[in-house]
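Incident log entry.

Two folding requests arrived from the same account within the same minute. Monitoring flagged them as a possible duplicate submission, but the sequences differ. Recording both here for audit purposes.

Request one:
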Amino acid sequence: MREYLGLIFAYLGDGEPPAFPLLPEFDHPEYVIKHEVSLWPCNYFTQLDNSMDQAHTAIVHWQFQRGVPTVSAEETEGGAVVNVVGPGYRNPSYFMMPNAHEWGSPPRLGGKNKWSYARGWRVPVDDEHHCRFGIDVVPMTGEEADRYRQQQAERWARATRPWMDVAEDVIAGRMSPRDLKPEDYPDLVNIQDYIAQVALGPIARQPFPERLGRSDAAVSLVRKIWERELTALAAGRPLTKWRRPDTLWTEISASGGDLQ
């Protein structure tokens, strides 16, 4: 067991644990760092599908005013990289086997041109629940970071109810999604994702044959990787030794520039 980046990590396998996977870009004590921990009443693979579905932003997160992008994906030494082309889409995102997702985000309130980068772990509790652990980094220091924290505190002070309660009200029909305004709900993205995923049921079951399209390229790839690895595990064959690159994110790479 080890504490790292404000979270507790534990090795639950047999024998000696492997080398602990460090995340150098996230381990910066002066940067603005936000943690998230929440329990969702749905299977964790629904969350993995969502993390790879870049096109869902255009539909679910309407406030960003993005169109449906062109999506491509390829396997990497760590899992998969998802590339998107379209208005408002400027950076790749990454799936890290077996259950982590990393992405860059546009400048936040008061952030000027500071793009943030984030990592989320989707950890199953049982078949019908999973925990979301996340860390979000904004590369600011000193007075700039202090001003940003103050602006964020004022923004979050406007939230009068827990965001998950709001999402449950929408699912139950007590509220309309049209009632949700970005200025009233600082965690609107989580509310929208929760509605879209939890409303599918504890385990997403489609009443009709699923037909994946071109925008689902990353979803399809990650499912194939998982199927391949589980088939190997069941047959007693060696599994892929996944490795995250030492560095994925810089302020430049998060904003869609060349990776450093």
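Request two (distinct sequence, not a duplicate):
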Amino acid sequence: MNATLSRLTATAVRAAAAFAAALTLASCGGGGVSANPSPIVDSPTLTILPATAIMYSGMPTTFVFSGGTGAYIIASSDQAVLPAIGGVTGRSVTLVPNTVVAETTVTLTLRDTGSAAPVTATVTVRPGTVNNNITITPSSTQSADCSPAICSGGDAEVKVTISQGSIPLPARGVRFDVVSGSFDFIISAPGAAEQVATSHVVVTDETGAARTRLRVRSGAPNQTALLQVTDLGTGAFRQASFVIAQYNGNSPAFFTLPSAITLTGPNTTECSGGTAEVAIFGGTPPYTVVGASPSFSVFVNGVPAPPAFVATSGGKFSVSFGSTRACVENLPVGVTDAAGRTLTVSVTNKVGTAAPPITLSPTQIIDLRCGQSASLVIIGGTEPFSSSSSDGLLLVTPPAVRTVTMNAITSGAFPVYATRNATITVTDGATSASAPVTFRCP
């Protein structure tokens, strides 16, 4: 009985307190003074997770927030190592640390737009483990005609060193993956029948080196292939490219990358004035390059030379249209090696898809009188257009059907005036054009 009475008494006390609070709030509101509403608070305490984290250079990590107003501001104590400053939309942010050469500690501070106490997260940034040291070495048994590429049907060793702060990491799992290209990794044991796969996991040796072999598919066409190396301990990865040369075993591989050039102009009325590079591989260097066209020029190391000479396999020449901006389709550039083998690079220069810039016709209007009107025709650009006048006595109407109309008017201050000069400007937001107008009254 006493316990029941105690519970009833406590309930009555809480109800009385709530009623008193309600009366207080009502009296405050009735006095004619209002305050801004308090922020919506999920919890008076902010949290950031993880509160401690290990990050690696170039690898993203996501931090999740809760509590406070839901509008957050985050800042890093070392912007050079971990860039993070400013407002955050949502309840998480993904950060990527910059390259460091030694382990570095950074503090992240999270605040909200209300009165919650700031919280911090301690981040340890470590150097990346997969450095820019991936090497791809063709087998010594492949034909030298493919060098520096890998022959179709040939194999090569892929090697990478996993280290941190220049300290090798032995016994580390490393995964090699095919990203693109006609090749696979050899996964079979020595002496066993060859088996291949698009992914292969190996373990680093005592020097931190991981090695595997790749096999280019038989008959693979000329191409650039791409592979990826991932440190399984940190998730850090790096990609590397190599060239595959088609080779049938009877004649030397001889090819260019790319095998054809296509340039595109800035708009529907112009072709490109740009430049494209072409690399030559295989065959027997040196090579002679001849582009028999007045529409473009052929350069080697920036020097025009008809014919041009490329000294070594892997060397490049450039095709430039310059100020001619000539539109051409499938014009040939011949490449001949020292043994007389010849191949052709097809060159195309075509118009773009964007609208041409705005122009106005006529380009100027002279001696427009008050009470009269004149029009400008809009050429090029993309509708809708807008127009403006630099003089308040020369009114322009919004462009309609690619025409802008202007009228010289009078005002109380200027019922009669001598010749005035104004500029009419038309724009579509991307390009604009102007025309000068002279007008007077009468």
